[in-house]
Write a structure and sequence with these properties.
- By secondary structure, the chain is of the alpha/beta class.
- The protein contains 20 helices and 15 strands.
- A seven-stranded mixed sheet has the order 3-9-8-7-6-4-5, with helices on both faces.
- The radius of gyration is 29 Å and the shape is globular.
- The N terminus and C terminus are likely disordered.
- Belongs to the group II decarboxylase family.
- It catalyses: L-serine + H(+) = ethanolamine + CO2.
Length: 589
């Protein structure tokens, strides 16, 4: 049960009476309850680094540790009111729990900043938008007029005329993906589905449900689709049409696939516009990108087939919902007449929540384009604030351009993860900065994370993991890359790439290392190993973790001084010209 909240309603000791909840109710009990066995002891140490073990979730095994039991009413409940009092107490305390948990919500892309009090009056009606939103059904308690208004708003946003689109308000973002890919499959029954490995799990669920051939495409470090690999996957299958899922914000890293490059790759591989179908999964960023000036456009003026977005994420609808828009020419391949409804069936679900369109309509009217633009700017600004402060604290962190998803090293404490409701994958976690996430909340999170982190790594037996493979060398603050970063910074201070003379020796090294940046990185590694192991030239040996950790405690200047002494370049670095310093350094190698 949840902490002290024992809510099995009937007990033998109560002689049939309902036990009321205790007045002292801990709203944070859900956090302090025992961890399920699948998440306990989830960290192991490998070569001195903290590594997250794979979490196993066993289907059919109930690992949830709390339950509010449903019980039959007693014969005298109508007169005593005990059951009503009990349920009122449960709901009141549950509300307190929700308020408390909302304060510590950072890991999932939900905007919790909303006020729909004026819509409470509509909760007394069973509003159902079953069937096609553009066709009046025999069921009269609906909100189609609100739904079509919302759809028209999104059609304008994504630049498609009223007469050219069809769409509906879905029950969630997954339904939008299921519908978009289904339309693609109906247009191209023998088509192959291409999706990046970092696509939402619902994309691969769609492939399984529809028995589609699915090809996973590699991604860049950023999480964006790798169009070079996409090209290699397309060419062997040129005889079959392509159905492509393009991510407008990946689930974990918030990466935005380059839609224009995807289209260009298809065209260069010989796919005409009538041989491919693109579905854009814009669950979160599909509504944010249009309000960022430098962001690439998601538009039906481009050869795309459908776009979906979630309504409970950036918009802030209190119930899961979404919007799916496709071209009206495509929907005819999918829709069927349903006499029972006096409508056509082209949606995934039959009954559809009629309240959701009203909530969406209400928010779109209240905020408008300018309101959303302000909120987007706030989210991006706060995301940069979080990322910068993490890096200043020595925490590995990455933030993609145009994204509000900050990726960082996974905390070692699962209780901390649960407290802040962080989404984790492997060695990384993320914070999704939404309109409801304030600077004050980020400061509280940072303060607690830094304090906890100091205890996780205090004995030096376990050290932060290397995340260069997950978020890139430049974003990794593990002991090795921290020192290499310091060395590279020092080298750039001494020899700016812009000031490198194009000498014969530089050209020779340039042929080997490619770019100045690669050269500087290679020299940094040489400096590092030379400093740690003076016999490197005769007996190469990788530095151990203790050596790396000690070096990370040195300042940039201390490191440069040590390097200069080791390589006998102190005088050259201090007094000679850049060109002579560089030549002497090359000579010392």
């Amino acid at each position: 049960m949840v902490g002290s909240v024992e809510v099995g309603a009937l007990s033998e000791k109560s002689n049939g009476k309902v036990d009321l909840l205790m007045e002292e109710f801990d709203p944070m009990a859900v956090v302090s309850e025992p961890l399920p066995p699948v998440v306990v002891d989830n960290v192991e140490c490998v070569n001195g680094e903290a590594k997250t073990k794979t979490r196993e979730i066993v289907l059919g095994k109930n690992v949830h540790t709390s339950c509010l039991e449903v019980t039959e009413p007693e014969a005298n409940d109508e007169f005593t009111g005990d059951k009503d009092a009990y349920m009122a107490g449960v709901l009141a305390r549950y509300r307190r729990t929700l308020i408390e948990r909302t304060k510590y919500h950072l890991g999932y892309p939900y905007n919790l900043d909303f006020d729909y009090g004026s819509l409470a009056q509509l909760q007394h009606f069973s509003i159902n938008n079953l069937g096609d939103p553009f066709i009046e059904s025999n069921y009269g308690v609906h909100s189609r007029q609100f739904e079509v208004g919302v759809l028209d708003w999104f059609a304008r946003l994504w630049e498609i005329e009223k007469n050219d689109y069809w769409g509906y308000i879905t029950n969630c973002g997954t339904e939008g993906n299921l519908h978009g890919i289904l339309v693609g499959r109906e247009v191209f029954p023998d088509g192959i589905l291409y999706a990046s490995r970092e696509s939402h799990y619902s994309v691969f669920k769609a492939a399984r449900m529809y028995r589609m051939e699915c090809v996973k495409v590699d991604t860049l470090i950023s999480g964006e689709i790798d169009c070079t690999d996409f090209r290699t996957k397309l060419i062997p299958n040129k005889e079959k049409p392509a159905i492509i899922n393009v991510n407008i914000g990946t689930t974990v890293k918030g990466a935005v696939d380059d839609l224009d490059l995807v289209i260009q790759t298809l065209e260069e591989c010989g796919y005409s516009h009538d041989r491919f179908y693109i579905h854009c999964d814009g669950a979160l960023f599909g509504l944010m990108m249009p309000f960022v000036k430098r962001a690439p456009k998601v538009s039906f003026k481009k050869p795309i087939g459908s776009v979906s977005v979630s309504g409970h994420k950036f918009v802030g609808c209190p119930m899961p919902c979404g919007v799916q828009i496709t071209r009206i020419d495509h929907i005819n391949a999918l829709s069927r007449n349903v006499e029972y409804l006096a409508s056509r069936d082209a949606t995934i679900m039959g009954s559809r929540n009629g309240h959701a369109p009203i909530f969406l309509w209400y928010t779109l009217n209240k905020k408008g384009y300018k309101g959303f633009q302000k909120e987007v700017q706030k989210c991006l600004r706060n995301a940069h604030y979080l990322k910068d402060h993490m890096r200043d604290a020595g925490i590995s962190a990455m933030l993609n351009e145009l994204s509000s998803t900050v990726v960082f090293e996974r905390p070692l404490d699962e209780e901390f993860v649960r407290r802040w409701q962080l989404a984790c994958q492997g060695n990384i976690a993320h914070v999704v900065v939404m309109p409801s996430v304030t600077i004050e909340k980020l400061d509280d999170f940072l303060e607690e994370l830094i304090q906890k982190r100091a205890t996780w790594y205090q004995d030096e037996k376990v050290r932060p993991p290397c995340l260069s493979a997950e978020i890139g060398v430049e974003n990794c603050a593990c002991p090795l890359h921290k020192i290499l970063g310091k060395l590279s910074l020092g080298l750039h201070d001494q020899w700016s790439p812009d000031n490198f003379p194009v000498t014969a020796c530089f050209r020779t090294l340039g042929q080997k290392y490619g770019t100045v940046e690669n050269l500087v990185g290679s020299l940094s590694r040489f400096f590092f190993w030379k400093l740690l192991n003076p016999t490197w030239q005769t007996s190469y040996r990788e530095p151990d973790q203790n050596q790396i950790y000690k070096i990370t405690q040195l300042s940039n200047q201390q490191i440069l001084t040590q390097i200069s002494k080791k390589l006998k370049l102190a005088k050259a670095l201090a007094g000679n010209s850049i060109e002579n310093s560089y030549k002497q350094f090359i000579a010392s190698l």
